Every structure is written in C-alpha cells, then in structure tokens.
Amino acid sequence: SENVTSNGTEVTDEIKNNFCRIDKDENVGATCDITFKEINEINGKIRPELLNIVHSDFFKYFKLDLYSQCPFWNDNNGYCVNRACAVDVIEDWDKLPSYWQPEVLGKLDKSGSEEASLDTQDEFLNHLCDNKGPNKNIRATTNTNNYGLVGKQDIEYCDVDEFSKKTAALVDLTANPERFTGYGGEQSSLIWSSIYKENCFIDNKKKNDTSDNQCLAKKVFFRLISGLHASIAVHLSNDYLNTETGKWGPNLELFMARVGNFPERVANIYFNYAIVSKAIYKISPFLENLDFCNDYDEKTKERIMHIASNLNTKIFNEDLLFQDDLTSEFKDQFRSRFKNVTRIMDCVHCDRCRLWGKVQTTGYATSLKILFEMDDQDASSVVNNLTKYELIALFNTFDRISQSVQSINNFEKLYYKKINSNNVFANLFSKNNFFKMLQSFVSNVSNKSEKVIVNTGANTVTTRDDKDVTPADAFKDIKMPATKNRKPTSENNIKNRWHQAFETEWHNYKEAVRFILRSYADLPRNVYNIIVRKVSSIWNSFVGVDNYLPVQDSNPNVYTLDFH
Ligand SMILES: Cc1cc2nc3c(=O)[nH]c(=O)nc-3n(C[C@H](O)[C@H](O)[C@H](O)COP(=O)(O)OP(=O)(O)OC[C@H]3O[C@@H](n4cnc5c(N)ncnc54)[C@H](O)[C@@H]3O)c2cc1C
User: Fold this and answer.
1) Is the dihedral of CA 181, 185, 191, 196 positive or negative?
2) Ligand 1 centre from 190 Cα, in Å?
3) CA atoms of 421 and 438, how far apart (whole Å)
4) Which atom of ligand 1 is nearest the CA belonging to 180?
C-alpha cells in the first residue's frame, strides 16, 4: 500500500521524500535481521573482491544450451518467432542504425568462448583449476545415480543435468555483459507472466486454510522472482544505449519507471541479496577446504573468504520456512515450481537475456538448495556435490545483485542531482506568487496524468498509471495470446456467427460515436492544458532554467517517460 513501508510501518513525509520511498534503517523483510543500510555497507566492502572473482578464469565461464526447446509451449507455433514480434518495442527497425538492431544488442559474443580449441569443454575448466588432472572436489558434470540426492529425495531447484549436455556451449560471461538488449513487448511479458504464475501453490491437504508458514513461503517465492525481475530492470537501465550519442550509460528516467517508483521492487532486490549472501555464508567453511583453482589462482579462495568474513548468519533466517511436516508438501511444490522458472528461460528468444536468465535462476536455485536442503548432518554432501556451474552461477548471481545494489545507490545520487537542479527555479521564487502557483498547477496536472507509455506490440501504444501494483494487479496490463477459435460443431453455429458479427459491428459503432463525443467534450480542457504548458515553457526559457515539463523524447518509438 502507498501508506505503509515494507515492514508495515507508516510512511512518514521524510520517507515519502526519500529516493524510492524506502526507510534504510528498516529491516529488509520478516525473514531478514538486516537493514537496507547495512546491506549497502556490506556491499561497499565486498564489491571489489566480488568483481575480481567473477572476472577470474574459473568464474567467468558458464555453459548454455541455446538449442534447448521451450518445454512449456510450442514455441514455433502460434507464438512469436520473427524479429519484429520478439522486439516490438521499436516500430521501424530498418531505419535504426545497426547497433540498435536486437540481433546485435542481444547477440552473444562468442569470441570469448574457447570450446573450439578443446577436446571437451569441461576439461577446459578443469585445466584452469588444476593442471595435474580433473578437479576432484567440484563436480564437472552430474551423475543422476547419486548426484544431489539425499536418500531418494530430490533436492534440486534447477535441472543440473543440462550443463552436461553435448549441445551446451561454454560462454565467456565477461564478454557478454547483461545490459539493455531491446528485448521486450508481448514475448517478454508472456515469459514474466508465466514465471509469476508459478507462484500459485495448491494446498492439497488443508483446502482454504493456508498456514502462516505457507503464506511466508509464497511471499518468499514472489519476492525472489520480483527481485530477479527488478534486478534485470536495474541492469538494463544502468547499461542503456543512448541512441543520440551511441553511448552506453545509466538512464534515470527508465530506472524510476521500472523500479525506483516501486519501493516493493527495490526491497525485493535487497531481499535477494540477503538470500544469496546467506547461502554463500553458509557454505563458506566448506569452500575453504575445496580444492578449486588453487593451483591456478590462489587469490580466488582468499577473496571468497574475505567476502564471507563480511557476512553473517542473521542476514536471512531460512529456518522460519518449512518448519514442520505439514509444510513439507509445500516445500516440494516450492522446489518443483522454482525448477519450472529455470526451465522457462529456454523460452526466452533473446540470447543474451536467456544466458543471464539461466545464470541467475541457476544461482537462486543453488542458493535455495543450500538454504533449505543442507542441514547439519548432510551439509558436506550437499556442498561436495555442487557442480562447478552451480558454483559459478551462485557467485555470478551474487555479483548481479550486488551490481544492482550499487547501481541503486548511484541512481540515488543522480536522482537528487536532478531534483536539486529542478529546485533552482523553485528556490528563486520561494514565496507564493503567480509563477509558483502556475508551476504547482502544471505539476499537478502532469502528475495526475503521470503515465508511462509502453508499447504493447503490433505498433500500438497504451498508457498505464505509474503507481505501485499488488501482485494480483501486476499482469492486468499484459495481453495474453488470442485463444484459438473453436470449430463450429452444429448448424446453429452459423446462426451464432451472424449474431456475433452483428454484435461486434454494433459495439464498434457505439465505440466510434462515444469516441467522437468524448473528443468534443475534452477539447476545451486539452486546449487549456496546452496553453498552460506553453506559458510555463516560455517562462522557463525566459528565466533560463531547464524545462520543468518533460520534452518529448527525440525517438518516440522507444520510451516516452514523464519524470519529475
Ligand atoms: C528472463 C528474461 C531476461 C531478460 N533480460 C533482459 C536483458 O538482459 N536486457 C533487456 O534489455 N531486457 C531483458 N528482458 C526484458 C525485460 O525484462 C522487460 O521484459 C522488457 O524490457 C519490457 O519491459 P516492460 O516495462 O514492458 O515490462 P516487463 O518488465 O516485461 O514487466 C511486465 C509487467 O510485470 C510487472 N512488473 C514489472 N517489474 C516487476 C517486478 N519487479 N515485480 C513485480 N511485477 C513487476 C508490471 O506490471 C509490468 O507491466 C528480459 C526478459 C526476460 C523474461
């Protein structure tokens, strides 16, 4: 809700005026005994070491099978496969320069991939770690007979076998940074909506009586995927291509529209930070004994230990979830539904997005396995059975979320810089005078109509109010694919079709008349608004400050965002 913070306390004016409306002294969530501020501090300390780790030769390679078929729907039938459909945020692609083309923006840079010169890709990583032979302590591939199974129980939150598939290729993650790709529109919305739909847990035993524990698990699941979604949005706004200058850099307006104006999304990024960092903290005593990359790079282990020494157990309390037998069935659902999330990544059409989607969902899956399946008795067996790709994904996911936290802090600085420059005008005329009244009036008018224009595909644009949404509302604005027409089953259907055709025509006629009448009714107000905006704009240029009202983006096909 607008009036309460993520912890349920009232939103004071001080918080309201804060960047992202977050009280940094609050805890990140009910399961985390750590504040936003503390996470910022930890991140500041560990960021350089984490960057070094993910740039090391062991951690920068990941395996991805670009040929895996989408397991949930027929991807080639009735579903978006052509270029315009996959990236329909921009309308007239051919007129844009080549570096804007989604094939270029979203393409994997395979130059860093080393597979051609090696017998097997796994050997490559083993060679990096231990020239004397394959690494024994971290599993290169999986063995379905004993891998990751405690007794007969499945403890996997992702398909670990896929990394051993012949079609999987090694990819250098540092040569393929996660950034703005132009991927969007209906295809990506459908992927996100399918992911959020995995959060529908079914209570088989106690219908209509969901326990607190189950609610907590559902909330954790939602926060996890919303945090991933928000973190991706932070990266694409932080590494955004400016079409005018051809340079990559942060886009504050885009960040505010996707994440900054939604305190819950920002909080979910911090929540994910807590989850992944707690998992790393939990396995750190075992990592010290693991024999990986020591011969190659002695510093790697030291760096991991430095990171772990800045973390602590209270960051996330995994024991609050799945406490009793009643919730174990729920835990199975949690596990299999998260596995589905990792599989949905195979339905993503943009290579680069798919790569980072796989890395991060695998990283979260590994974190969940460590947090929920590793108890005191079988702790070492879980760690020793981790594949190197899970470990690589875990640290790269931590790096992604840590980069998000750092970017949020950078965006905060840009935000206040912008606010301060906007305030120059207001400070000049601090008393109530005509121009101040005019300015606040204009600001009210534009706030009321504060919209984010989003492209919904098929060359159409719609507007949606830029306000916080509940999970239930989250996908009201998403167009689902048209349901297929059923074939007529009887003669009566011909009659029905005539009836339907008439209804449709009559509806269209009524809409057209309504549209014309509404245009006449709106005319005086629109003329008035235009005059007020013009006067304000002329006054601003007269006093020599930036336009208080936003100027239309020079490339209206991309994003047109109102920002204050
Ligand atoms: C797996 C995956 C990886 C991607 N990677 C990249 C990438 O690397 N680079 C890139 O440029 N694009 C990437 N995309 C596309 C990107 O995530 C957006 O889908 C795209 O930019 C279009 O954004 P949008 O504003 O239309 O809404 P979307 O981000 O598609 O969101 C759809 C709806 O979800 C709701 N919503 C949005 N964020 C949240 C949240 N955090 N929590 C809860 N609800 C939310 C809103 O109601 C919104 O309308 C990726 C997409 C997917 C599925």
Assistant:
1) positive
2) 10
3) 19
4) 11
Supply the residue whose CA is at minimum distance from atom 5 of ligand 1.
Answer: 353
Structure tokens at 368: 């969940």
The set of catalytic residues is 350, 353
In one-letter notation, the amino acid at residue 343 is: R
Check pocket membership of 228 for ligand 1, CB cut-off 6 A. Answer: no
Q: How far is the CA of 336 from the centre of ligand 1 (A)?
A: 23
Question: Which residue(s) pair with 27 in the sheet?
Answer: 35
Q: Which residue has the tokens 């394959």?
A: 134
Ligand 1 nearest-atom number relative to CA 227:
41
Report the C-alpha gap between 459 and 247 in whole angstroms.
26
Residue 249 phi/psi, 5-degree rounding, is 180, 180
**Residue 321: how many other CB atoms lie within 10 Å:** 20
**Tens-level pLDDT at each residue, the chain (564 residues):** 456 555 555 655 555 566 777 888 888 888 888 999 999 999 999 999 999 999 987 788 888 887 788 888 765 433 334 332 232 333 444 554 454 455 555 555 555 444 434 444 555 555 545 444 334 455 544 433 333 333 446 778 888 777 777 777 778 888 888 988 888 888 888 899 999 988 776 666 555 555 666 677 888 899 999 999 999 999 999 999 887 888 889 999 999 999 999 999 999 999 999 999 999 999 988 877 666 554 556 788 889 999 999 999 898 988 877 766 555 777 888 898 999 999 999 998 888 898 899 999 999 999 999 998 887 667 777 887 888 889 999 999 999 999 999 999 999 999 988 887 766 555 554 444 444 444 444 444 444 333 332 323 322 222 333 333 333 343 333 233 333 344 445 555 666 777 778 887 888 888 888 888 988 988 888 899 889 888 888 887 887 765 544 433 333 333 333 333
Overall pTM surpassing 0.90 (yes/no)? no
Asked whether 236 lines ligand 1 (CB < 6 A), one says yes
CB atoms under 10 Å from CB of 7, counted, come to 12
State which ligand 1 atom lies nearest to the alpha carbon of 345.
Answer: 1
Q: Which residue in this structure is represented by tokens 């094939």?
A: 103
Tell me, what amino acid is at 254?
A: L
Q: Is 388 in the pocket of ligand 1 (CB under 6 A)?
A: no
Burial class (CB in 10 A: 0-12, 13-18, 19+), 75: middle
ipTM over 0.90? The verdict is: yes
Contact between 237 and 251 (Cβ < 8 Å): yes
